[in-house]
Amino acid sequence: MSAPSLRAEVRAQMNQRIKDVARRRLAAEGANLSLRAVARDMDIVASALYRYFPSRDALLTALIIDAYESLGAAAEEAEAAVPRADLRGRWLAVCRAARAWALAHPAEYGLLYGNPVPGYAAPQETVRPAAKVVFLLVAVAIDAADRLAPVTPAVPGPVRSDLRRLIDRYGGGLSADHFDRVFVGWTHLFGLISFEVFGRLDGMVDARAEQFEHHMSLMADLVGLPR
Amino acid sequence: MSAPSLRAEVRAQMNQRIKDVARRRLAAEGANLSLRAVARDMDIVASALYRYFPSRDALLTALIIDAYESLGAAAEEAEAAVPRADLRGRWLAVCRAARAWALAHPAEYGLLYGNPVPGYAAPQETVRPAAKVVFLLVAVAIDAADRLAPVTPAVPGPVRSDLRRLIDRYGGGLSADHFDRVFVGWTHLFGLISFEVFGRLDGMVDARAEQFEHHMSLMADLVGLPR
DNA sequence: AGCGGGTCAAGAACACCGTTCTCGCTTCAT
DNA sequence: ATGAAGCGAGAACGGTGTTCTTGACCCGCT
Q: What topology does CATH give the domain B1-53?
């Protein structure tokens, strides 16, 4: 590896510091991040930030990528801590880790799964880290492939061909029917997390952890994971 | 009824015009609504809007309430057009109408089910119109109550007591177990719609209508609605 | 008929915001 | 040592939400 010049190193540190301060701002305030506020927190003038990020959107993109990777890492760690043979345990571990991360970082979660920022299209480099969680869920199903209960009804034709493409990309060795149910579970996972983080459950459900557990267990049933 | 003074009437019309223009702006641009832009579209100066709405948040709140009512009305109409005995058809009609409304009004949908606007707490008067869709789903289940297949596993205890409270408020005559499954379906409905509207399905699923139909049918199965 | 109170739109002003540009200063490579 | 490149400060531009003042208008009353 080429030795990084001192210049490049302090630049990378500054880059990191900006993101850290921005994350704190994001957690304190709502979703709208102010460059000038970030600069103030660093005793820096706003225009100086443009040495490191070409625009506010670029900084947001960097935060989004970091957040996807943070979420993915949290899920991966949690899943890795469960014995390989405990398939349902691994499924639930991924789900719980995603929820825990979202509740711990609600503003960043909003960046990832909330309203897309207006005028901002998610760049290509966000798609791979974004797929980490669903990839983990698929991996659990693959490991369980020969113990999965058959599922009914079968996936309708047009959906099946979409799924085939995804199976080639992510999860070889899984039937379209079972992949479909993983997809259902993935949708439900983030649907329920979004409801909770965005306050849609306020005044309706108090026992949220238990409800989450219950829902994700139902999804595991739907996939056909053995109890 | 008291005759509305002419003054009050033109004022109400102006109120309505502002909301219409704001809705158009919202559809054209992203989620961030600019009062000055609305004013420009009306050949009006921005400060004049403050005669009608005390703040930007107040205008947003009015739009949100209108949107909830529009969505609720769309779902209600669609459901009412299905024969009462076709329980699954009524369930699916509500789901389809919600999706169609969301796709037709993505920015307004984002207001309702996306990131909560920073510094903005949903006022009390939004909760009743917001509950319309789930209320319709519950109503279908109530009408189907004596034909619903039993569901397993049973709802865990702490969740059950939350559900009991909701049953008293919304859906008397439904078992906690079945109410729970309606809740699951409701979560999934808006989870999947959010995925689609917010672009989380881009590049993954093309046959979205078919996939939606499939998912919502699975949820109907989960509730125990007869085929 | 005339007057007074209430309502309205306009406009200036303030404090923010993202972004661009210029200007000195430091630091590095030659 | 010198030239080039990177850096932060600062001013500036056009945008935003919001407040306040000012003058015009309409309506109902005496």
A: Arc Repressor Mutant, subunit A (1.10.10)
Q: Which nucleotide's C1' is closest to B45 (Cα)?
A: C10
Torsion of CA A162, A165, A167, A173, to 10 degrees: 110
DSSP string over B120-184: -PPPGGGHHHHTHHHHHHHHHHHHTGGGPPP-SSPPPHHHHHHHHHHHHHT-TT--HHHHHHHHH
Test B205 with A162 for CB contact under 8 angstroms. Answer: yes
Pick the CATH number of B64-223 from 1.10.357.10, 3.40.50.300, 3.40.50.720, 1.20.1050.90: 1.10.357.10
The pLDDT of residue A176 is 96
Among candidate residues A133, A138, A137, the one with its CA nearest the CA of residue A171 = A138
Q: Flag whether residue B222 sits within 8 Å of chain A, measured between CB atoms.
A: yes
Write down the pLDDT at residue B1: 43
Summarize pLDDT for A17-49 with one digit per residue, the tens.
Answer: 999 999 999 998 888 899 999 999 999 999 999
Specify the residue for token string 């509950």.
Answer: B131
Domain ranges of chain A: 1-53, 63-223
Nearest CB to B187 within list A114, A192, A213: A192
Interface test with A, best of B64, B159, B215 (most A CBs within 10 A): B159
More confident site: B30 or B51:
B51
Quick check: do B1-53 and B64-223 share a fold?
no
pLDDT band (50, 70, 90) for residue A119: low
Q: What is the CATH number of domain A63-223?
A: 1.10.357.10
Nucleic strand D near CB of residue B57 (< 7 Å): yes
Read off the pLDDT of each residue in A192-196 and give the average, rounded to a whole number.
Answer: 98
Q: Which amino acid is at A55?
A: S
Q: Does B168 touch chain A (CB under 8 A)?
A: no
For A163-177, A179-193, B200-214, which range has the lowest pLDDT when averaged over its residues? A163-177
Q: Which residue, counting CA atoms, is nearest to the C1' of nucleotide D10?
A: A45
**Which phi and psi (to 5°) does residue A139 adopt?**
-60, -40
